[in-house]
């Protein structure tokens, strides 16, 4: 599974391509070939099994494999970059399930994995890392895997809520939309008994940048000093996801053989086989969105106390804001990392346990 220190600084084995894909280097056997087989099975043109067809929408699109001309022995999975469409992507990787080792694991491997997070069995998930856009300072806060391993049942809700905190507000709109996405994945798991997923993750992404231009509230927020421990990120180097961005000469190395599989996939895409899964925010969540807009507006007003005219203007802006907030927040939750997917003939109860617990923790955040 993920090494988060890599993910949020420079993900080893993961390349970001300018064409909107990421390249994941195949891991050594049996993990790499297992993951490749899984993607081939789910995305293969001969796949007609509705369970797998349904699963496609929860995965990054698989666009075939790629081998650099300079390293003919290397093989990469070419995958849709899930973070691509976001301006300021907030990203969290959560390993799901009671066990982070598969049925073939040696006693030593089992011990190694359990000792990393003994609470996995009880909690059913583990936060591997987070990267959160801080609106007030226009910077990212990063949390590595040590942070997730430090979370206990008691601190889980607060620990996880950091992912939805932009420095001044809890993004309840993003929490609510994330719950809906996870529920759709849970529904798929409740209806399938063909596969078991070990040490696999959910990748959460939501838009961190405020959508204020449409509201006419004002310009970009004042830049504040970054809070202690916050790293400012170079957008060019880091792009969206901190994975290595290929330069133009590297990207020219993409081989023609991939073109064929790519065009097949894009053809499927045009046919609507890969439906984006944006969900509508239920009506009862509108208040949460309005809270959010109030928070944003207050952050944007000039320093010092607003005078009467400013308050009137603020009220006007808030009214306007509320009417503009019909759009659901941009949130994407995808399953990733399939090096330990095994055939089965029962429901994946341990993954389901993790999903349910995760949903309940997220729901608790909305109650605050
Ligand atoms: N399709 C994707 N789009 C965007 N980012 C991705 C995608 N797939 C993976 N990533 C990023 O790369 C990281 C590593 O991905 P993944 O867990 O699949 O790699 P891994 O090599 O199996 O990890 P590990 O070495 O820990 O087992 C993820 O945490 C995520 O941030
Ligand atoms: O996060 P860390 O501390 O780097 O630990 C790694 C993490 O648990 C990975 O998920 C795991 O790969 P798998 O999930 O594929 O087993 C890897 O096993 P490995 O050491 O056997 O590669 C561990 O080392």
UniProtKB/TrEMBL annotation:
GO BP field: inositol phosphate biosynthetic process
Enumerate the UniProt keywords alphabetically. ATP-binding, Kinase, Nucleotide-binding, Transferase
Read off the SUPFAM superfamilies from this record. Answer: SAICAR synthase-like
Q: Which organism is it from?
A: Chiloscyllium punctatum
EC annotation from Swiss-Prot or TrEMBL: 2.7.-.-
Q: Which family does it belong to?
A: Belongs to the inositol phosphokinase (IPK) family.
Q: What class of enzyme is it?
A: transferase
Against Gene3D superfamilies, the record matches this protein to: Inositol polyphosphate kinase
Q: A cellular component term (GO) from this record?
A: nucleus
Q: Name one GO molecular function term.
A: inositol-1,4,5-trisphosphate 3-kinase activity
Catalysed reaction per UniProt? 1D-myo-inositol 1,3,4,6-tetrakisphosphate + ATP = 1D-myo-inositol 1,3,4,5,6-pentakisphosphate + ADP + H(+); 1D-myo-inositol 1,4,5-trisphosphate + 2 ATP = 1D-myo-inositol 1,3,4,5,6-pentakisphosphate + 2 ADP + 2 H(+)
One Pfam family of this chain: IPK
What is this protein's name? Kinase
């Amino acid at each position: 599974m993920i090494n988060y220190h890599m993910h949020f600084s420079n993900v080893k084995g993961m390349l970001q391509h300018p064409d909107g894909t990421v390249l994941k280097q195949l891991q050594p056997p049996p993990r790499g070939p297992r993951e490749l087989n899984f993607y081939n099975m789910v995305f293969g043109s001969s796949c007609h099994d509705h369970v797998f067809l349904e699963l496609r929408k929860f995965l990054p699109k698989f666009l075939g494999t790629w081998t650099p001309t300079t390293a003919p022995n290397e093989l990469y999975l070419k995958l849709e970059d899930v973070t691509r469409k976001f301006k300021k992507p907030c990203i969290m990787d959560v390993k799901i399930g009671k066990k982070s080792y598969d049925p073939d694991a040696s006693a030593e491997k089992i011990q190694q994995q359990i000792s990393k997070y003994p609470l996995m069995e009880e909690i059913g998930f583990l936060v591997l890392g987070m990267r959160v856009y801080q609106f007030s300072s226009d910077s990212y806060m990063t949390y590595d895997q040590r942070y997730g391993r430090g979370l206990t049942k008691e601190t889980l809700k607060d620990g996880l809520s950091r992912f939805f905190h932009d420095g001044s507000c809890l993004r309840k709109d993003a929490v609510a939309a994330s719950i809906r996405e996870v529920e759709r994945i849970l529904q798929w798991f409740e209806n399938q008994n063909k596969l078991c997923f070990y040490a696999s993750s959910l990748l959460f992404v939501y838009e961190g940048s405020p959508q204020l231009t449409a509201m006419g509230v004002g310009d970009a927020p004042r830049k504040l000093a970054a809070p202690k421990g916050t790293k400012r990120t170079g957008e060019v180097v880091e792009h969206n996801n901190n994975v290595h961005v290929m330069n133009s000469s590297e990207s020219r190395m993409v081989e023609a053989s991939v073109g064929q599989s790519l065009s097949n996939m894009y053809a499927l895409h045009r046919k609507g086989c890969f439906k984006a899964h944006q969900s509508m925010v239920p009506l009862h969540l509108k208040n949460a969105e309005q809270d959010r807009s109030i928070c944003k507006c207050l952050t944007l007003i000039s320093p010092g106390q607003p005078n009467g005219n400013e308050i009137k203007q603020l009220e006007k802006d808030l009214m306007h804001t509320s009417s503009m907030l019909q759009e659901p927040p941009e949130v994407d939750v995808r399953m990733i990392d399939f090096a330990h997917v095994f055939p089965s003939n029962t429901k994946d109860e341990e993954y389901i346990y993790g999903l349910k617990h995760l949903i309940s923790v997220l729901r608790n955040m909305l109650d605050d």
